[in-house]
Specification:
single chain, 294 residues, alpha/beta, 6-stranded mixed β-sheet, 4-stranded parallel β-sheet, 11 helices, 13 strands
Amino acid sequence: MREIIITTESGNDLPEHIIKENNIYVAPMYITMNGETFADRSIPVQRIYNYYDETSKIPTTSAVNVYDFENLFKQVREEHPGCVIFHLAYSASTTCSYQNGIIAAENFDDIYFVNTKSVSGGATAFIVKAIEIINKRKESLEDADWAYLSLADELSSLADKIHFSFLPGNLKFLKAGGRCSNAAYIGATLLNIKPLIELKNGELVATKKYRGKTEKLIYRFINDFANENNISKEALYIVATEGLSEEGHDILKNTARELGFKHVEINPCGLVITCHSGPASIGIGGWSKDVENI
């Protein structure tokens, strides 16, 4: 049985211990502000907030480029000769990163791409479940291209059973990024309304509205997510951008446990996701009950 190595992009906000425990290689996505480009997680998130305060603009974000993918795949090959690479990709419909990876892989053998159709905490949930599936299958997996393609297809089918919902702390960054009109921003701000943004077939879609302070909405947010998506109580992967209060973090963890989630993780968002969401935002990812024992 050949070794299987997983690669992914930084925008999937994997907790550091998952990266280390599973020897996952992470390709950097980027942000650009004041004409200077930074790799995801290479500078403090506070610099994004400072930039917005000074300019009323948010940094632009960019995908993993072909050159970085080539270097990543080369590094994996050098450190794990003869391995098979499974790239569990950030939602392909939201970035050209997936296509850049495909281009880079033309110079390598035995690289299989799987579109998670998710980002951040949702992609984390996907990758955790995908690792479980790979570990169950690898002992009986034949060393043949058709077998790895079959495994990639199985992982791809998992994408539609992973769910991710996101609640912005406020609409400032959505407005600055052109995702919210000025009229909608003013109305939502006056009424303290927050849109619920969900991943639907790989794309972020505003589906309904909540009203009130974020900390007061957490129970409803998680409960709605679990019930409306038939979420397994095995695990919940929560992400939060810098600026969420300590009280908010405590409420998130306590609420998830109160609602019966057995394993709960809260991980900070990196630069890329923060640019799209702004301060004090929260996201939750999990899988539906029909993949509990997959």
